[in-house]
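Q: I have 433 residues here and want to know how they pack in 3D. Can you give me a structure?
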Amino acid sequence: MKKSNIFYQLKDFLILWGTQAMSSLGTAMTNFALIIWVYQQKGTASSLTMLSVCSMLPSIFFCFIAGTIADRWNKKHIMLVADLLAALGTATVLVLYLTSSLEIWHLYIINFLLSFMNAFQNPASYVATSLLVPKQYYVKVSGLQAFSGSVVTILAPALGSAILAFGGLKTVLLIDLSTFLVAFLILLFYIKIPDVPQEVREKAETFWESCMAGINFLRANVPMLRIILFFAFINFLSKMGGYGMLAPLVLGKMGGDQIALGVVEAAVGIGTLVGSVMVMLSKPAKSRVFIIFFSCAISFLLGDVWQSLSHSLPPLAIGAFASNLPLAFLNANLTAIMRIHVPTTMQGRVFSARDTIQFSTMPVGLFLGGLLADYVFEPLMMGSSPLQQVLSVVFGSGKGAGIAVMFFIVGITGFVTCMISLQNPIYKPLDSE
């Protein structure tokens, strides 16, 4: 009776999940505080997007090596080392700040190094979850992870803003390090992650052959490769819109008000939270593929398009909520498809290959979005040309209006792309068990 109880079966995962979520909250508060700090120093969209680009590049381009190591080495050891080095990065920021030496370029370098460690931590933790969780709970666990992620998204801006206002950046960084310490000690002394027995064929592979195994697996599974390529394009688009330019849009339209940004960021988390609860309570979808594409289409419509037409805080927050609710269904079903169709012995390499492909376009989207905002659309909407006068009727004028035009273009393009892809029969094999 005890062993059939879902909480007993997921005991180790739930403890790991809870402590890691607490650590993620500390990290998210630090990230939010640093966004405010960077914007106060520079006040440009490109300065914020460059911070994000530095956070992405290593985790994308070192994924092949990291995935192979995650499949070959002890998952727990990889997670511990990666988390420890990430904490040292946060400690470095704290020391630089306390000595009044912190510069924006320091954050670029530190974010780059932290991203390098995430390249190893992410596939290891992903496979660890698959090893700790019975197959029948994959979708519910994905919903649970999305739930904690949304709670973090809700609390981080509110707590980050309050602590930043009353305790300063130093206090935010100290809290981040404290939450890390708790999660690190729990993982070190309590959590036992099962080892995966390696196949004889894999033992005979060279390191390079093992690195390429993830790509070769995807090449042999065309529907899975095609959906990954689809999301590579979607990620490129989204980083020029609501998932890359939201902070400069809100700060621009709201006159740099960090509380307004906190409200919108919290609305993002509430939307994901509600969606995650719905995922956990709902029955498995008859067609995961339909849910994935339809949810993505609705997100573009309710997010980028709606927010591009918003001129005050309430509609901006409503758009943030509405666009993130369906994404909980998208992410849970996409994750379930990957876990069901990829053998556990290959998940580290296949997931890393997937991340390299579908996330490689994100820095390009961020970088291009920042440049287009600062040098094309924002100057256009700050001027008085005939085109500006026409567009200002819909998108307003002044700071943030140019980014709103970008949001509209991204939203319409994303919606149309998703609805066309929904009709493509090549993805149907992914609905099989």
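Q: Anything worth noting?
A: The first helix runs from residue 6 to 9. The CA atoms of residues 279 and 329 lie 6 Å apart.
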